[in-house]
Amino acid sequence: MLPLKRSDFATDFRWGCSTSSYQIEGGAELDGRGESIWDRFCATRGHIRDGSSGSVACDHYHRWPQDLDLARELGTNAYRFSIAWPRIFPTGRGKVANQKGLDFYSRLVDGMLERGLEPWVTLYHWDLPQALQEQGGWANRATVDAFVEYSDVVSRHLGDRITHWITHNEPWCTAFHGNYEGVHAPGIKNFKTALQVCHNVLVSHGQAVPVIRRNVPNARIGAALSLHPLKAASDSAADVAATLRHDGLRNRWFLDPLHGRGYPADIWSLLGESAPLVQDGDMATIATPTDFLGVNYYFPEIVADAPGHGAMATRVVETKNVERTAFGWEVSPEGMVTLLGRVHRDYQPAEIYLTENGSTYDDVVGVDGEVDDAQRRSYLVRHLAAAREIVAQGIPVKGYFAWSLLDNFEWAEGYIRRFGLTHVDFQTQQRRLKASGKWYRAFLQGEET
Ligand code: IFM
User: Fold this and answer.
1) For residue 327, which atom of ligand 1 is closest to its CA?
2) Which of 94, 114, 120, 280 has the fewest CB atoms within 10 Å around its CB?
3) How many CA atoms lie within 13 A of 241 on its CB side?
4) Is ligand 1 within 6 A of the CB of residue 127?
């Protein structure tokens, strides 16, 4: 690998870190915030591995100036965060928004601008108001209207200072982790529900886009998808067909409709009774033109045919002798090159941003107070080298956001999985920049590595 330097990338390349509201904010009951599906989900024993919740998390609700200082000190020029919908509408909708919630994000955005950090906001990163879940959540079409109202209010209040808008983060996770596997809030296990959730989330994206544009004339809007490069476990016809099916639900189910192709027919034909209810005009709404595609890349998957297993009769195979993170996710910078090559070839989004990429390891604070996370540093270096290769291939990747600025609440894994470039001691809330963060800082300051 050639030495890597910031100047290998365009001067207007966006460099940032990503975070999300429920994972870092805490302050769950402050200033009128309502209950979210994650507050409710965490309250049931057995849902979260360490029995924790995001009620305090990184206490970012109070410590945000310090956290934004960290982002600035890293040398990043952009910062991706999300809004907690229940801070704005505690019960999901209403005539009057919660001013204190709006004020919090207003201060936060001002804080970014003061520090030279371009705000990249995500409207939905999984913390649905619980009150909406009581009425069916995303499976209820009325939630689409609620999302559009919420997007309207937020974009009217913050649109004078935010240009970059991400409607949804990883709709696959919203739908399938939350409503099919039941491992995320709201903990439902029903394939048909998951597909309806998926559809409604996509419609809500398409309906929100013109509303944001109306409020923010210079807005740049996109959705952030979790995408995976896939390989068949063998050359057998069965495994190859299984990989196509797996791809159909994991990747194409989102990429195709967002790019005007409707849902993939090969998968639709397998859904039977589980197919979602699609109203006239929905597919055109979902395909409303956007300005960029956000890609969250973590790992590739090896797929085998598995009759009777899951909705697509496929299984993800754990191959031996590959490098993995502590989560068991395969480390594959080459997979990122393959994936973005495919997205560019098959869909040609005008701009692509790597809106998340990162890794978890069992970090230890040394006696000297340092966190020498050599594996995460190596992961970061190799993925940035892959990003450079992708750009060199003429693929319009315009920015990279590391997941994450801070160790935080990793959903069903609680605080067991640390993804931060900054270590957080959850007892004392002390922040310590890890070796990976120091490397990112040196890279962003122009040092050749
Ligand atoms: O922590 C999550 C994030 O909320 C969404 N993308 C994947 C990350 C790591 O699992």
Assistant:
1) 10
2) 280
3) 9
4) no
Residue 447's pLDDT is what? 81
Beta strands in 255-351 (DSSP E): 292-297, 301-305, 314-316
Distance (Å, rounded) from C-alpha 137 to C-alpha 127? Answer: 11
Q: What is the pLDDT of residues 378-422, one digit of tens each?
A: 999 999 999 999 999 999 999 999 999 999 999 999 999 999 999
Name the active-site residue from 170, 301, 410, 413: 170
Q: Please, what is the average pLDDT of the chain?
A: 98
232 near 300, Cβ under 8 Å?
Answer: no
Residue 24: both structure tokens together: 């870092």
Tokens of 211: 């509303």
Ligand 1 atom closest to the Cα of residue 411 is 1
User: Strand 301-305's sheet: what is its strand order?
Assistant: 230-232, 301-305, 314-316
Total domains in the fold of the chain:
1
- Active-site annotation holds for 29: no
Print the domain residue range for 170: 12-444
Look up the pTM and report it: 0.98
Structure tokens at 350: 């005008």
- The answer to whether residue 376 is domain-embedded is yes
Cβ-contact 191, 181 below 8 angstroms: no
Q: 4 in a domain, yes or no?
A: no
| Mean local confidence (pLDDT), 336-351 | 98
State pLDDT tens for residues 433-445. 999 999 999 999 9
Residue 448: per-residue pLDDT: 73
Q: Are 226 and 173 spatial neighbours (Cβ–Cβ below 8 Å)?
A: yes
Report the distance separating Cα 55 and Cα 391, nearest Å.
40
Element (H, E) at 62: helix 60-74
For residue 165, the cross-strand partners are: 121, 221
Q: Can you give the pLDDT at residue 449?
A: 72
Cα 253 from Cα 268, distance rounded (Å)? 9
Q: Within a 10 A sphere around the Cβ of 324, how many other Cβ atoms?
A: 14
The one catalytic residue in 35, 149, 301, 356 is 356
Residues 51, 48: Cα–Cα separation, whole Å? 5
**Residues making up the chain, counted from first to last:** 449
Residue 319 domain flag: yes
Return the exposure string of 400-413: e unless at least 16 CB atoms fall within 10 Å of the residue's CB, then b: bbbbbbbbbbbbbb
- Residue 311: partners with Cβ closer than 8 Å, 6 or more residues away: 180, 191, 249, 270, 274
- Looking at residue 1, its pLDDT comes to 67
449 belongs to a structural domain: no
Dihedral angle of Cα 214, 218, 223, 224, to the nearest 10 degrees: -150
Pocket lining: 356 vs ligand 1, CB cutoff 6 Å: yes
CATH number, domain with residue 183: 3.20.20.80
